[in-house]
Design goal:
Layout lengths: L5 E11 L6 H9 L6 E7 L6 H11 L3 E5 L6 H11 L2 E6 L5 E2 L3 H12 L3 E9 L5 E3 L7 E2 L1 H4 L11 E3 H4 L11 H10 L5 E12 L9 H15 L4 H20 L1
Parallel strand pairs: 1-2, 1-4, 2-3, 6-10
Antiparallel strand pairs: 4-9, 5-10, 6-7, 6-9, 8-10
Helix pairs in contact: 8-9
């Protein structure tokens, strides 16, 4: 029997690992949304800092926050999949524990999805540093993308995405340690749907030195593995897509 989702409810998926510096700000940005039909599913990937103490305080005041802790560190894909398993909403939204949403993010994005009958949507971002200061303002994003396009571009940050499970069905992220969000977008778009972009910077994406996303060589290794092992793309096409990815990453960095 297929899972029944609650119509109108947005389930926000948040993996947490040693996020004491930023997690309160991330959660507060969800609680401050103008759209109120929201549940927050937090899966703690065995943090050893004060993340739980911070989350516990917020849970005491907000009954729509649900918390689960893994018994050992299993990686963000497992954490997100557990949160997806526990979620009840028709809509899934993703927010990393160090990013921040603008208060109209959900409302504006759902309205755009309704207008376009979109199953998959994302937004532009503003890049901030560890202190929350802007280091890169919003730039225009491509407003419709398909599977073939994102094979050459990782242009969809996880914290911007909302999907409609009534249109897509239930799903889980591939169980890889890095790049599971990109692999998931490929998995969904491979079904023949398109992703629609809202050209407003409704997410503040925090760039932290030393993170996987900030290491371009590691990113290239990550997408190569996804092409070869998950998408089953042959060597020469994978090489072509990897070169396209590298060129587009350089263009994005300097734009």
């Amino acid at each position: 029997m297929s899972k029944q989702f609650i119509n109108g409810l947005v389930s926000v998926i948040m993996p947490v690992y040693n996020a004491e510096r930023f997690v309160k700000q991330a959660i507060m940005s969800i609680l401050s949304q103008t759209y109120k039909e929201v549940e927050i599913i937090i899966v703690d990937d065995c943090s050893i800092d004060k993340s739980f103490d911070i989350i516990k305080e917020l849970m005491a005041e907000n009954k729509n926050i649900f918390y689960y802790k893994n018994e050992k560190n299993l990686g963000p894909a497992v954490a997100r999949n557990k949160a997806i398993e526990l979620s009840k909403g028709r809509f899934l939204a993703f927010l990393d524990s160090d990013d921040i949403w603008q208060e109209e993010k959900i409302e504006k994005q759902l309205e755009m999805m309704k207008q376009k009958n979109a199953a998959f949507s994302y937004t532009a971002i503003e890049t901030i540093n560890e202190m929350g200061n802007t280091i890169k303002l919003k730039k225009n994003i491509k407003q419709v993308v398909d599977y073939n396009y994102i094979l050459k571009n990782t242009i969809i940050p996880c914290s911007t995405v909302i999907v409609d499970r009534n249109l897509l069905g239930d799903f889980r992220m591939p169980l890889i340690r890095a790049g599971q969000d990109y692999a998931t977008w490929l998995l969904l778009l491979r079904k023949g749907i398109k992703a629609y972009g809202l050209n407003e910077a409704l997410v503040k994406y925090r760039k932290v030195p030393g993170s996987v996303s900030s290491n371009k060589f590691q990113s290239l290794k990550k997408v190569w593995r996804i092409y070869r092992e998950l998408e089953n793309i042959n060597f020469f096409k994978s090489l072509y897509f990897s070169l396209c990815f590298a060129v587009n990453a350089v263009k994005k960095h300097y734009s």
